Amino acid sequence: MSAPAAARTAWRLPRWRWRDALWILLALIAVVALRKGESSYEQRDTPLVQHAQGLGRVEGRNFAVDVTGFKAAHAYLLKGDYSHPEDYLLRTPGVWLSVVAKVEARDQSGYVGAQLLTRDGLTYVASSQDRPKLKGINLRERVVVPGLPESGAWFFEVPADRLQGAHLQFYWGNGLPRGGDSLVDVDLGIDAARARKLMAEAKPVLDLRP
Amino acid sequence: MSSAPMTPEPSELDTARTAPAGWWRRNALWLLGTLVLGAWAIYAPYREALQAYQNRHPSHAIDVPKGEWAQYEGARWRLVSAEALAPRDPRIGGPLRKDAGVLLLQFEVIADSGTQAKALDLCKGQVSDAQGRLWDANPAGLPRLSGAKLPNTCGSGYDAQYKSIIALPGRPFRFQHAYLLPRTQRLEGLQARIDLRNSQTSKGRYLRFAL
Questions:
Q1: Does residue B86 sit in the same domain as residue B121?
Q2: What is the CATH number of the domain that holds A200?
Q3: Chain B closest CA to A142's CA: distance in Å?
Q4: Could you read off the pLDDT of A23-44 as tens digits, one per residue?
Q5: How far apart are CA B130 and CA A141, in angstroms?
Q6: Fewest C-beta in 10 Å: which of A132, A179, B175, B207?
Q7: CA distance A98 to A70
């Protein structure tokens, strides 16, 4: 055999066999199957929902909340401060729902967030500390530390027709519920009759002055 | 004349030498390379994510016995004193909730040459108990405190005359962390922590002082 012929033999491409095509096909099937079984971004980013029913104590990762009651009102009468000394009315185009609770941090300091999830999937985050401005009562943006529970209330502004079927949700942090973290979902048990009763009992003006 | 063939029988050694190598042997090089690169491709992002996580959540404690100095992040650190204030202590100058108590920790830090006070100011102080509960230094609900006017950050602040002071290399700089704890909490079993979060060099380490 001559030298050029030997070189041609050494660099020859591998011979194609049907077995190779089968391996490629199997690999493609595996890739498609794995991609189809992969969790979506929304699934990965979803908090871990823990369901609870009615009033009472519920626990999430690093926090516990004891809900003792809730009440609706059309407006709040509040005490003025140094910039506006006169008492004033805080109105809402919907209805105010106040949720009275005791909050506790279990392992580290931080905030417990609250939101109201309506039957049609809308979310209403608890109103900020300035609305209503009730220092020591409004639980929004209140730091809780281990061993020192905080009592107070969250305030929600919601359309009057959205109370029926509403769920309260609690989570750790001051922003939005975090993926992979616990989201405690409390069914308040507001059926149609309870919603009507809540609205019937809602005071036109609820006096929250100290 | 014998009937033996002219060419001798090939020995077993020759057979092994001339037999075509198996698939695994022929492809060993790139298989090994793929294995090494694949392992590295999995490990490298894991290591990077772990380092980033450890920078934000320090988990390797450097234990510091009472009264001793410890080297950490370009400075030497020492816990000078730990004092739980009585509920009616005159230094508590503001409203304090009935179920809470105040713990004061004084530290001293001596920066090495080249360590900036700004870098030390990034320190975070915490106190932990035996159950792993953590309290942050200088929380929002802390009452106004009088007494020794010390900075509450680790590298700079103001002295009693409201004059700006910074931690100069080689000179001791004293600062104070105040904590709001449950009144029933005992000092025994508590540990003070100092860490420089987000530092690229701390590698998840933090100082842990016995009180």
A1: yes
A2: 2.60.40.1240
A3: 9
A4: 999 999 999 999 999 888 888 8
A5: 28
A6: A179
A7: 5
How far CA A94 is from CA of A79, A97, B31, in Å, comes to 22, 10, 68
A186, A170 contact by CB (below 8 A): yes
* pLDDT tens digits, one per residue of B92-134: 888 888 899 999 999 999 999 988 888 889 999 999 999 999 9
For residue B2, tell me if it sits in a domain: no
Supply the ipTM of this predicted assembly. Answer: 0.73
From chain B, the residues in CB contact with A106 under 8 A are 133
Tell whether B100 is within 8 A of chain A (Cβ): yes
**Cross-chain residue pair B136–A147, CB shorter than 8 Å:** no
Whether B23 and B95 map to the same domain: the answer is no
**Inter-chain contact B181–A107, Cβ cutoff 8 Å?**
no
- CA max distance for chain B: 126
**Looking at the domain assignment, is residue A42 inside a domain?**
no
Contact B133 A143 (CB under 8 A): no
Domain interval for residue A145? 48-207
